[in-house]
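Request: Give me one sample?
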Amino acid sequence: MAKLEGAVTPTEIAEHIDSVTFDPEQTLPNHLTSVSIEALNEGEYYLRAHHGKQDLVEQGQFAPLLLQLPKLIESKLSPENLVGEIDTCNATLQSHPSCLVGRFLRWLTHQINVEEATPACLTIADHTNLGIPWELLEVEEMPLGAAVQTIHHCPDIQKTETVEPFCSGEVLAYAAVPSQRWQATYRWQHYSEFDQFLGNLQKSKASYGLVYIDGFEVPEALRLNPTAYIKRSRLLKSQASLVFINGQMLFDESVSLSHLAFLNLFLRYGARGVIGTQKRVKAEMAQQVVEMFFSGCQAHRPDAPITVPAMLQQMRRQVYERLEEEISDDSCALYLATFLYVYYGNPQTLLQLPPADT
């Protein structure tokens, strides 16, 4: 079998496991848990998790249903049937004796307390190419993305310290048509041409708290590689902007840039955080997710802000509770879409957008 993306050799992993020792005096905050997964050869994986003074270090396989789940999410199954498949997968993980992720979720149940004053937070470093929908997996019969705040980490993120946690300022937007309702609420600069948008991103000295990119409005595959612009962006170098990529950008095969690689470009060159989808979602459902996000921004007062991961958790819990009340095509589709939007970057990122009338 070919070596998987992010894989290391059995010898390397054996040495790594032997060398993994947590200082008994080192204790993570009670609300914080971290998990890291790497791919080995022959369908084997290595998982390391840490909470407080507790650590879980194991090597093994994944349940077949979990491996099939990413493909099912992008299949033509109806939303109701897809939710049913996810329920079946979660039931399997609860009792599967050898699945690494199932064992981790059972271990996590004993580490977190969702009733604590400080919300539970999970950082996920998934170095496989499997596309596991972590937020849809269950802990104590609640989807992980609703039970805890989740933060994903992409490779190659610059580890620089920033003093100011706020991303504050207007919205810099790329969309073919400025049709979103939130655009009447906030101050924003809109571009319908990708090259003009990238030019402003690189040269602008303005303070944009949010960079919004609408992948659903791209009329055809983009032939312009954004790497050079993003690398030299004055805005991103200020490390004070959040990037929201709605949907998945479609690049021409000559550009050779994947969706995850596009997300990672922003993180690598200075974005404080990135919101993006793990899988493709329907445009109408994505629009509802975006409206929920901007409504959440508007609902929180400047003197009582919440972090971006906390806002996404609130959104997921809202649609999860709706699903528990009523199963319908719309409630299932919105549930799936909302849980497929995930956050990468700094856990403490705060967003403040000035209203349009200021």
